[in-house]
Each structure stands twice: as structure tokens, then as C-alpha cells.
Amino acid sequence: MAQKTRKYNKRTTLRKRQSKRNFRKNKSKRNGRKTIKGGVKGVNSGEKEGAPFAKPLKTAAAAAAPRRRRDGKPRLGRLGTLGTLIEARRAAWEGRSVDSAILACRVNGMELANLTEEMKNNKEVVLAAVQKNGMALTFAPDALRADREVVLAAINQNGKAIAYASGALRADREVVLAAINQDGYALGYALGYASDALCADREVVLAAVQNKGMALTFASKMLKADREVVLFAVQNNGLALKFASKVLQDDHEVVMEAVKNNGLALEFASKVLRDDRLGFAVVMEAVKNNGLALKFASKVLQDDREVVMEAVKNNGLALTFASVELKADRDVVLFAVRNNGWALEFASDELKADRNIVRLAIRRDGNTIEYASGELQDDDSIMRSVQKSNDRRERRMNTQENARASENLPEIMANNQY
């Protein structure tokens, strides 16, 4: 027993000694100092043996400028350190260092707005800004807005930046094509700021509408009447039918392609194609795509049982646009509330008192009981069904919330936000 105690005490003593050595070592590192045995090297050659010496400090100019990579570009360094970024921004705002201005713009392109005029006139700084955020071109001087390389870099990042290019470059065919080939609604935005000649250029407009059909709004009047151009536009976005010529809004094939893409494009079809005789196929295609397109059908087709049935199968709330007779049709209302319980609001008073229909509606959402008849609202069995429906809905919402939290957990942990 005594031997075990001696061994334990010996191990404890060794651990304490090691802890003291580690503490002294870490303390010297924290102070940025180092002890040299056998004499002192470097700047403090007059100090005694074993005395600590400090590393030489950088000059103010060297401290303000970030290190550069082998290719000559400034190194981002440890941007995770808040002090590094703050010092770089301060140096950039005060115009002390071009490298600091580039670093600040590479982190946030809109920092260009805060720089001095001298820095804004530096092409390398502006390029760094627009490569990070194309819209930073708005803060560039006129000379650099007319610089082809700078403008191309900006619109490759954000096509909307063409709005801030010089007039000569907005009329440049290559620049405009680069802008409209950039993803997003910037395509139409870029085309809108282009010159009138380019808005009438068939190749440019075709490139635009194939990417974003709504860019048709910026096309010339002649191209809005071009059947091929409009077909490409409505195949990309059916709502582009709004900007087609009246002749093409009456074209059966063009309108059919539009409603296949988006049923609500029926709103912009001619009155003839929304009628019962010629428009039956068009309206049927529209309500299959989006039941709410029934709103734009003719009164005759809103009273057509086949059309309304297709509409409520797609969206139960389309029942609101059905005729009074079909709102009292039990089969139509059943399909509507099966799709969306809130369609009960638009059913006839007689069907709001139908126990089976009301049960089907509250199974979808218990709160729809407010549209049931007064008699059913006082029915105990119906109210128990409402409670069960609301409990199911609450459990489903909790499950979905937990699933979203689980999906976001790795990202939250990575950002140390837990």
C-alpha cells in the first residue's frame, strides 16, 4: 500500500512540474517573446544571457498593406480576424494603401462607394469591386464606366450592371449579348437599357427571350409581331403573351403554347379563344395547368361541367369562378373540397349543410368549420372531428419544423450559432 502511495505521489509531482513548464512556455508565446540560451541573437545583442528578446515590429506602411501572392495580387489573409478586416477598411477609406482598397472590395464590392476619388479612379480597385458585385459599377467614375474590360467584368457578375455602363457600351452588341446571357431577370433589364437598334436586333431579342420570356416587353414593335420570337418567349414564360401583338394573341398555336406553360396566360388571349366554340381546347388546357385560369374563361365555359371539374381537380378554390348551378353540384363540390377544404366557402348553402362534404373539408383543415351550416357547427360529432383534424395539423407542423431544424443543424454547427 505504501509503495502504491509513493508511485502516486511521484506521478503527481511530475505532472505538476510539466504543467509549470507548459505555463511558462505559453506565457512567453503570449507575450511574443522568446528566451535564447547561450547568448542573445538579433536586435537585442546588449542583453544578458538567457534574457528574452522581442521580435522587430513592422513599419506602419507595411502593417497597413496586406501581403501579396506570387502572382502579385493581394492575399486575403486571415479574414476571420475582425481586426484585420477593420484595419484594411480603415486604410482603404483613408486612401493609405491600394492593396487595402483591393482587399476591402474583394470582401464587399460595394465598399467602392466609401473609397477616396483617387482609389475610385484606380482600375485594379474597380475591377476587384465589380468582380465581387457587378452593381458596384454605379460608383465607378465615367472613365471606367466606358472601359470595356471593367464593364464586361461587371455584367458577367450581374447583367443589370449594364444600366451603369456608358452609352457607347450599352449600344455595343457584344456587351449586350453578354448581359442577356447572364442568369436572372437581369436579361430583360439589360435589354431594356440597350439602344433602340439592339432592341430591334432579332438575334439579340431571340437570345433574351429564350432565357427569360418576359424580356419580350423590351423588344421592338416589329419583333413583338414576329411569330417565332413570340413562340420562344411564351414557351419560356406563358405570361409573355401579354406583350405579343394582338394578331398573335389571337393565334391558336401561340396561345396554346402559352397556356401549357402557364394557365393564367389565358387572361391575355383574345376573346374569341376564350369562347365556347373555338376556345374550348385552349381553356381546358389552361385549367389543367392552373385551375384558377377558369376566372378568364367565358361565362358559357364557366358553366361547362367538364371544364369546371378539371379546374377544381387542379385547384379547389377555382369553385369561386364556377356558375351558381355548378356550385350546387354535389360531385363538383366534392372534388373541390377534396383538393382544398376552404372551397367549402363557395359551395351552395344546401351543400354547406351536407355532413359528408363538411367532414371532408374539415379533414383537410379543421378551421373550415366556420363555413358549415349553423346546425353542423353545433353537432358534437362534427366538432370532435374538427378537434382531431386540428391535432393532426399541429403534429404535422411540429414534424415539419423538426425536419427543417435537422436539415439546418450541420450549417448552424458549422457557423458556431448553437
Q: Over all CA atoms, what is the radius of gyration?
A: 36 Å
Number of helices: 26
Provide the β-strand percentage band: under 5%
- Number of extended strands: 2
Structural class: mainly alpha
Q: What does the average pLDDT come to?
A: 79
The low-pLDDT segments are 33-64, 76-82
| Morphology call | flat
Strand order across the biggest sheet? 1-2
Note down, in words, how this protein is organized:
Helix 4 (98-107) runs parallel beside helix 6. The chain has 418 residues and is an all-alpha fold. The protein is built from 26 helices and 2 strands. A two-stranded antiparallel ribbon has the order 1-2. It is flat, with a radius of gyration of 36 Å. It is 56% helix and 1% strand. The longest helix is centred in the last third of the chain and has 35 residues, at 380-414.
Gist of the model:
By secondary structure, the chain is mostly helical. It is built from 26 helices and 2 strands.
Structural features:
single chain; flat; 418 residues; mainly alpha
Q: Would you spell out the secondary-structure blueprint of this structure?
A:
Layout: H1 2-30, E1 33-35, E2 52-54, H2 60-64, H3 82-93, H4 98-107, H5 117-120, H6 123-132, H7 142-145, H8 148-157, H9 167-170, H10 173-180, H11 186-192, H12 196-199, H13 202-211, H14 221-224, H15 227-236, H16 246-249, H17 252-261, H18 280-289, H19 299-302, H20 305-314, H21 324-327, H22 330-339, H23 349-352, H24 355-364, H25 374-377, H26 380-414
Helix pairs in contact: 3-4, 4-6, 6-8, 10-13, 13-15, 15-17, 17-18, 18-20, 20-22, 22-24, 24-26
